[in-house]
Each structure stands twice: as C-alpha cells, then as structure tokens.
Amino acid sequence: MHRFIQYPISHVDADGMALINWIAEVTVDNVDGWQEEGWFRAVEIEDFIHHFEGFRYDWLDVPEMLADADCAYENPMIDRDPVSTWVDRRVSLIGDAAHAMYPTGSNGASQAIVDVRVIGAAMLERGVTPDAINAYDAKLCGPISELVLRNRGAGPFGLLNLLDERCGGVFDDIEDVLPEAERRDFMAKYKAAAGFAIETLNASPPTISRNRRIH
User: Fold this and answer.
1) Which of 76-85, 147-156, 166-175 has the lowest mean pLDDT?
2) Burial 128-158, CB ≥16 within 10 A → b, else e
3) How many Cβ atoms are within 10 Å of 64's Cβ, its own excluded?
4) Dihedral angle of Cα 55, 40, 38, 105, to the nearest 10 degrees
5) pLDDT for 49-65, tens place per residue?
6) How many CB atoms lie within 10 A of CB 102?
7) Domain boundaries, the chain
8) Which helix (H) or strand (E) holds 4?
9) How many CB atoms lie within 10 A of CB 122?
10) pLDDT tens-place string over residues 147-159
11) Which residue(s) pair with 74 in the sheet?
12) pLDDT tier, 215 (very low <50, low <70, confident <90, very high otherwise)
C-alpha cells in the first residue's frame, strides 16, 4: 500500500507558488520490527520514487514533484501497545508518552492538548493530588487506548483499504465501489471515537472555564 499526502506550508507568493510539504508513505514488511535508529533520517529520493511512478494525473504529477524536492527524510510509522493505566502512584504519563499512535488521524498533538486540559480540570476540582491524576486516567486511558488501536488499523485511511480490497484501487466511479453513504458512515464513526464529532464538540462546555486558576 502506498499513499501520498501533500499540503502547502507557506502563503502563496506573487507568482502563485507556495512551499509544499509532502508525505510519501510506503508499507513494508515489519516482521522484524523497526531496525533503524532515530527519526528524520536523511534519504535519497531515488531510493523510493519508483513506488510512486504510477501517481501521474492531469492535475498532479507526483514523480515530478518528488524529483524537484531538495531533501527527504525517513520516519517510521510505529506506535506502542496500549497499557491498562497511565498512572503509577503520584506519577502519570501524558501525551505521546501515554498513547503513542499512528498519525493517520492527525490527532497525536491534539490529543496531548486534550490531556492537559482534562488533567488541569481534574486538578481544579480535586487539587494537585493523586486523586486528580486518577480521575484523568479514568476518563481518558480506556477511550484513547481504543483510538490507538483504531489508528493502527489505518484510522480514517481505512477507507483506502476498503477500496483496495474491493477493486485494487482502480475504478471509474467511486459510487459503484464505495458509495457516499458508506463513506460518510465510516468517517462519522471515526470522528466519534476520536472525539472529533462536530455537533458534540460544539455542544460541549469548556473543559476549563475562563480565568480559572489553581491556588
């Protein structure tokens, strides 16, 4: 399975050009686990560009874009098995230390922000105490562990897996393979699990009221 994602990371200049960041994802055999050291390891574009030779469209030529890039870095897509609790007496894990997950749902950083808000609200209610971090753990550890596993199964990109299973990714009309109603239902379930359901978020009160402080 190969995926290509791109998005602008600068304002458009006078010539209509913008700096583009791209992610070229290649699935490899992981039977022996990740054998390299560290992240952001510089690699030659020629080492992987052949995987995307077929990604040529009338609106985007992916191999041409890759060939024009001045650098590329390799990062492993790895996570960690969920644990039953993030708390050990007066110490608690938070952010990626608690729930390292595949970034398929773009929710790794946002979940860390949610963690901070939830533990902050617990401390406002219960003080800076073990009871506060236990309340945070009880509220988030179970649901976010489920999200880690959901992202391991490709998260929202699971739609692409369905397309691959049903037609090898080749189709004339997506409605014949994966109808809009099914796509919407799939994404609605993921958004609900990830806490991204718009109606629920908009109807929720602030996690921490404005100007609240721990004294």
Assistant:
1) 147-156
2) eeeebbbbbbeebbeebbebbebbbebbbbb
3) 11
4) -60
5) 999 999 999 999 999 99
6) 19
7) 2-74, 87-203
8) strand 2-8
9) 22
10) 888 878 666 777 8
11) 41
12) low
